Amino acid sequence: MTIFSKIIAGEIPCYKVAEDDKFFAFLDINPVNWGHTLVVPKQETDYIFDLDDKQIGEMMVFAKKVAEAIKKAIPCRKVGMAVLGLEVPHAHIHLIPLQKEGDMDFKHKVENPSPEKMKEISEAISSQFKG
Ligand code: 5GP
């Protein structure tokens, strides 16, 4: 069971943003920018491009809805999207609010994000999510 499956199962806490029957979204614990969100399929697959066409299409549609909620909740020009997957072997999309290109720099991290602000941000995004 991956760490993300444990999060989805509620065994590890997270700042949840959205969920449907197949996908789950929550704040990245080590955000590169406020509002940095991960979108994951509930079914475990390591490499995102091993998902079949239907699964990857549905994941994109879910990620689009989450990005729309982020855009409404967090002041930004656009929401950027990235796939790395080098750390956690459970396919996921990073959604990151952008004001400028540097906001997508994975070497930059928010310093000591407070639980209060993470909670506030996850609730703000969640309240804008239209499932
Ligand atoms: P990647 O696999 O895309 O290279 O990176 C995995 C991402 O997952 C990282 O940005 C990391 O901060 C995030 N991450 C790793 N473990 C956890 C966790 O337990 N909870 C949350 N919310 N995010 C995590």
Features:
binds guanosine-5'-monophosphate; 19% strand; 3 helices; alpha+beta; 131 residues; 31% helix; five-stranded antiparallel sheet
Description:
The protein starts with a helix and ends with a helix. Strands 1-2-3-5-4 form a five-stranded antiparallel beta sheet. The protein contains three helices and five strands; from the N terminus they run αβββαββα. It has 131 residues and is α+β, with helices and mostly antiparallel strands. Helix 2 (53-73) packs across helix 3. Bound molecules: guanosine-5'-monophosphate. Residues 3, 12, 14, 26-30, 38, 84-88 line the site of guanosine-5'-monophosphate (5GP).
What is the general shape? Answer: globular
User: Which class do the helix and strand fractions yield?
Assistant: alpha+beta
Ligand types: guanosine-5'-monophosphate
Number of helical regions: 3
Radius of gyration: 14 Å
Report the major sheet. 5 strands, antiparallel
What is the percentage of strand-forming residues? 15-25%
Q: H/E order of the elements?
A: HEEEHEEH
Average of per-residue pLDDT values: 97
Poorly predicted regions are: none
User: Could you give the distance between the termini?
Assistant: 27 Å
Portion in helices: 25-40%
Strand order of the largest sheet: 1-2-3-5-4
Count the strands?
5
Oligomer: single chain
